[in-house]
Amino acid sequence: MSSCRPPESVSALSSLYLLSNLYMKEITTKHITALIPCYNEAQGIASVIESFPTQRLSLYGYKVSILVIDNNSTDNTADVARAHGAAVVHEAKKGKGNAMRRGFQAITPDTDYIVMLDGDNTYRPEEMLRLIELIDSGFCSVVLGSRLGGRTAKGSMNSISRAGNWLFSHLVRVLYRANVTDVLTGYFAWKREALEKLHPHLTSEGFAIEMEMVTKMARLGEEIYCVPITYNPRIGRSHLRPFYDGSRILWMLTKNLFWSPRPDLERLPIEQLSGSTPIKT
């Protein structure tokens, strides 16, 4: 009777190869810092943190640090995040733009790639590798997770938001020649160098931050691409005000048509801009 069991010498060689491969990955590990801006997201943040595919990413040679930016929450978002293993920094001034700039300042010097996603469980951390692999391969410097080009679950995006997002994305493609299909997504990935070029020029305080980042990255000449992602209904109450925030997003799109970077702010190290010691995770 034949056996499917390989000869012991072959098994030994296979084991040696696997160990060698894992060892090489260990000494060439790249560091991803995941930023999660939160305002009163105690209901959803635990699920987001627990969904990070830490072990799977480690097999591909990545380690992940999770940094929650508590944007002056009135619930126990920060406590829940810490209890589930995330580092937490605080930004007292409300607004997603303020929270993101605080998060950028807290990135550690050994970070290679930065990912941004929300703390309301709408985005899937399990899909992070889809964004990172395009950057790591050298294909581009910035990747956006596209909800409109991916799988949008029932009840996750109303018709007004969908129509507005489609319109804004179309205008950015036409006016900025940027290859994007979802300009208002909250799922981003950057090479560190790309974020160091962008960060000094960010000024948005609220939900116009995504439009500011995409339009200014286009003006800075970054290679931006989108990949399809899953978008689920949020856990907890939405803080977006469609018409108020929409008007500011439109203004950001319009004014950045005439924007050009200040040469004295070109690619400063992120930690140099913060004036403080980066947060260790």
> What proportion strand?
15-25%
Low-confidence stretches: 1-11, 274-281
Give the class-level CATH name: Alpha Beta
So what's the oligomer here?
A: single chain
CA distance, first residue to last residue:
56 Å
In sequence order, what are the helices and strands, one letter per element? HEHHEHEHEHEHEHHEHH
CATH superfamily: Spore Coat Polysaccharide Biosynthesis Protein SpsA, Chain A
The count of domains is 1
What class do helices, strands and sheet pairing give?
alpha/beta
CATH fold category name: Spore Coat Polysaccharide Biosynthesis Protein SpsA, Chain A
Total count of helical runs of at least 4 residues = 11
The Rg value, from CA coordinates, equals 20 Å
Percent range of helical residues: 40-55%
Please name the defining characteristics of this protein:
7 strands; Spore Coat Polysaccharide Biosynthesis Protein SpsA, Chain A; 281 residues; alpha/beta
Description:
The chain is 40% helix and 17% strand. By secondary structure, the chain is of the alpha/beta class. Strands 3-2-1-4-6-5-7 form a 7-stranded mixed beta sheet, sandwiched between helices. Helix 4 links the parallel strand 2 (62-70) and strand 3.
